[in-house]
Design a protein that fits this description.
The chain contains ten helices and eight strands. The protein is an alpha/beta fold and 286 residues long. It has two domains: 246 residues, Thiamin diphosphate (ThDP)-binding fold, Pyr/PP domains (Rossmann fold); 34 residues, no CATH class. The protein has an eight-stranded mixed β-sheet with strand order 2-1-3-4-6-5-8-7, sandwiched between helices. Helix 1 crosses helix 6, helix 3 packs across helix 4 and helix 5 packs antiparallel against helix 8.
């Protein structure tokens, strides 16, 4: 089998993101990670909701499912349950993932499906031309908050830690080597993997730029204990500096494993459903 390159995972559709958008780098890094994993394109499924970052599946040579706003994770979970042999990734932005889709992030963490969730966070609604998102700085004035911001921002990594998401990492799109390693580890991890990517919007958010992020970011200490959720929360709480790296890993049963276990229990109790007739099923409810 010939070695894969990043180009094996790129479609012929050209990205339509704005010039210098961080999502270009995420696309490059993701396809490089898939090449390192040596996955077959037809064994990969990407789901996405709505927003700039959610355009990413169109630019990949794999199966893709473009859902409605905020619903990328339920689709990804359903796909993984239906065919556990597929490598399933879900992608999107901070608005799609933490606003309308925030509820699904909580429950995906509870269910622990074996899939990878990559959020490209630019701290703005870019597709709809620059409104505050759930991760926007409190002093970012926009057309919907022209005088004063009335909402506090959320902390995605701290949220994931509080939900006991089983793999949590944060990277910077401009550090593509580190980000590629994070994505490779996330895909290999058995369980729900969350990769929070700082991906600047050069068009509508002048507070979060490549330069400002380079000044703020710092790597997690060498030897950081990724099994210690409390210590990881301490680093996630800190915004100055903003820590990068793998915060937390927790190996636990995946949703597919639990469902398989449940199937075995039910077979022991009621037998193989394939051996039932419709009349047998109806009799259970008489």
């Amino acid at each position: 089998m010939a070695l894969k390159t990043a180009e094996h995972y790129r479609s012929k559709t050209k990205p339509t993101w704005c010039k210098d958008c961080g999502d270009y780098k995420v696309l490059e890094t993701l396809t490089a990670a898939l090449a390192e994993l040596e996955l077959e394109p037809h064994d990969i499924v990407l789901t996405a909701g709505v927003g700039c970052a959610s355009r990413l599946p169109f630019y990949t040579n794999s199966y893709g499912f473009h859902t409605v706003h905020g619903r990328a994770l339920p689709a990804a979970i359903g796909i993984k349950i239906a065919n556990r042999d597929r490598t399933v990734l879900s992608v999107g932005g901070d608005g799609d993932g933490f606003s309308i889709g925030g509820n699904h992030f909580i429950h995906a963490s509870r269910k622990n499906p074996d899939l990878t969730y990559i959020i490209m966070d630019n701290e703005i609604y870019g597709l709809t031309k620059g409104q505050n998102s759930p991760t926007s700085h409190e002093d970012l004035l926009t057309k919907i908050n022209p005088y004063e911001v009335v909402e506090e921002r959320i902390n995605p990594v701290l949220m994931a830690l509080s939900f006991n998401t089983s793999f949590i990492a944060r990277g910077f799109c401009d550090d593509q080597d580190q980000l590629k390693d994070m994505i490779v580890q996330a895909v290999k991890h058995k369980g729900f993997s969350f990769v929070h990517v700082l991906s600047p919007c050069t068009q509508y958010n002048q507070k979060v730029t490549y330069e400002s992020l380079r000044k703020r970011i710092k790597q997690l200490p060498d030897g950081h204990d990724t099994s210690d959720r409390i210590i990881s929360m301490k680093y996630a709480l800190t915004q100055e500096p903003l820590y990068m790296g793998i915060f937390y890993k927790n190996a636990r049963m995946t949703l597919n494993d639990k469902l398989e276990h449940l199937r075995e229990i039910s077979y022991d109790q009621i037998g193989n459903p394939s051996e039932y007739s419709l009349k047998d099923v109806i009799k259970q409810f008489e």
